[in-house]
Amino acid sequence: MERMLKLFAVRTIDHKEAVGLFWVPNLDTLSRMIDEVTDPGACEYRLIDAPAAVTWEGQAPAIGVERGEEDEVSDREALACGASFEFAFADILYGDTKSWTKMPY
Length: 105
Description:
Number of strands: 6
Radius of gyration: 16 Å
Number of helices: 3
């Protein structure tokens, strides 16, 4: 049986700071994955059910490529540099702020 994954945006309730984007089959799995990063009870989520993309302006960072010691930028930092959210991501993350749901806890 094929499990259908859904894409969720997750942020903190108090400061509206991004926690992450999660592809999961259900809210139980989402809660467990958030728990690896932060307290799920302090988060809210929103289903992204439209086309969405994360893009980078200019040269894209190499992910998973071993870098020399002189390169002090981590993959995570490189991904954050120049990243922009397009289509549904932009609408959800920067637009409507009332459609977020508190994580069940």
